[in-house]
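User: Structure please.
Assistant: Input sequence and predicted structure:
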Amino acid sequence: MNTLEAFNQALFLLINGTTATPAWLVGFAILIGDYVIWLIPLLLAAMWLWGSEAQRSLAIRACLVAMLGIGANQLIGLAWQHPRPFMIGLGHTFLPHAPDSSFPSDHATVFAGIALTLLLGSARRLGGLTLLAGVSVAWARVFLGVHFPLDMLGAVVMAGVAYVLIAPLWHLAGMTVTRWAIMLYRKLLARPINLGWLRR
């Protein structure tokens, strides 16, 4: 076992829950690790439905960064299978999960991609809150035994790469994409917009 993998496993065992962990803490971790991710689509939907054109543009961009990061993760998983802790009998597992590749974490990639885009796009408060939520989810999924700590570091790197790749394309076509999306939105949801339920 190489030094990096040994460090990864040792750090995992420091964070991972045990049979002595209180049930309330395991339940709390499951709540965070399994359900907080649903705040991301709610956040992006709120930015779109009630935000300004700049916020809508940022929401689209953040979504693209997250999707590109997730796509890259799938390619990494196909090229290099890294087992999850329970697949090698390490630690304790409190959350059922498919025995697929652990590296990088999809959950953490989504949070890191969204947070990075918001932080660098003049939505620092939302970006900071997203980052805090992402850190809590990363902790929970290691604590619950479905990821290694370095899976989370890999996710941050992939989110950064996705952001850098999207940036020049967004500079060229972001405004056009946003205007097209707004035009489609106004046609599809014309009635609730006219009733004042949604922002035009």
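The CA atoms of residues 113 and 160 lie 7 Å apart.
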